[in-house]
């Protein structure tokens, strides 16, 4: 049960000063709280004996009030320390969790659903933070504070009465062990269900246009209703066990009250304790009610925190498929790119997605990649991003194997525009500045002009400051592509990768963008995959892929002369262009 505290040892060591002070003051408050009942008991005994005076009564009242004020201020300090630690560990875990996600490769996100990761970053981290805050409070109160109160009852009042009153308490320990195991299992299932619900919500929101287009609103509502019902049932399963804690403790504490009161009155009549002792004892008995509840809360919190920490650690312990080598080689510039007999297969694939690819590209050259859908065009481009473990063969940059180059250095050379445009819920300006921090408006306009987006700015409500909405929902497909191109152009990368990044623009705009690339990227390497051959006619090298194999290679004129797939596709597109013009 307490393994969660052991696994959080790194945090307690880091914040040991905070917790030493907080726990010391918490224990000190527990000891000070024993004095008011004792003082009240002494006052009652003096009243019974008739020896009470105005001066002594004022003294008792002043002492009790003084104790309460001291307890108040000490309580403020320990609560600030312990619950401040709770907020701190939540911040640290969230930062660590997010930073870890930023290092993970695509295969990790193929195995883990976004909704489940969100559940771990919210509910699970919150449950762990409760463990180091409220959990530490219940741990101390259910052990040290309970022990101190029982000690005061036994040694200051009567050990016989105390022993009789605590007879029902072992029943609590037995019940807590049983309930704790059930809570751990059921809470894990509830959190998994919450992750499924998050994932469903994300899919429904991002695909709302498709849902409406196919008139699937009622079906999606029913699907969401079913999954929320599952979340409800699994959380109710947790609540049903959780609901046993308080009645069980109340029953045992009630039995302690009955035993304490009955046996206490008997001892008063036998003059073994005084009436003031019995009043003090009953006040002490009332003080152990919270520690009894704290035992139940402790089991509950520790089991929830343990289950949540297991889920968080499962993510944090995942290692990226691609990591920096221990001694990376420093490369000043990517003067050449060479693929030697490269064969690659995705981790989830059963066949080779690239087979025996050989290519050589010098700095400043442009590579065009064409082929049927699913032929491996994007896969070939992604080899340069080094997001997956390398297959067989060699991929060299400036003569150095890509695995020996630091990932940060590799990615700093590359400007990448993927097939699926990803824009952030910010303004057009901020999305473009993502490629170059704090870029000036002049720089932004240069990138926009290169992407042929300048004429569209006038159609946007606030120009550069127009919010694009989530994933660029307020922009058309062509506008999203050109904002993404501007983001890549503004960084002026050594290697520009365009993965079918011109598919949503018209032929005239495409020609303008290609001309801008040719004029402004002289001396820099560009790789373009496309279905429209007009986008790569100017390329120094063009390769045709089919099922991961290079079937044709050469310049535009050389490929036309081969009378193969390239010429057939080129002639078909020429006919289509003539018909549409």
Automatic annotation (TrEMBL):
Keyword entries, A-Z: ATP-binding, Cell membrane, Membrane, Nucleotide-binding, Transmembrane, Transmembrane helix, Transport
Keyword ATP-binding carried by entry: yes
Pfam families assigned: ABC_membrane, ABC_tran
Localization in the cell: Cell membrane
Transmembrane segments annotated in the record for this chain: 20-37, 57-78, 127-151, 157-179, 249-269, 281-301
Gene Ontology annotations for the cellular component aspect, listed alphabetically: plasma membrane
Main location: membrane
Every ABC transmembrane type-1 domain range: 20-304
GO molecular function term, any single one: ATP hydrolysis activity
The ABC transporter domain, residue ranges: 337-572
SMART domains found in the cross-reference section: AAA
N-terminal signal peptide: none
Membrane topology according to the record: Multi-pass membrane protein
Protein name, per record: Multidrug resistance ABC transporter ATP-binding/permease protein YheI
Gene: yheI
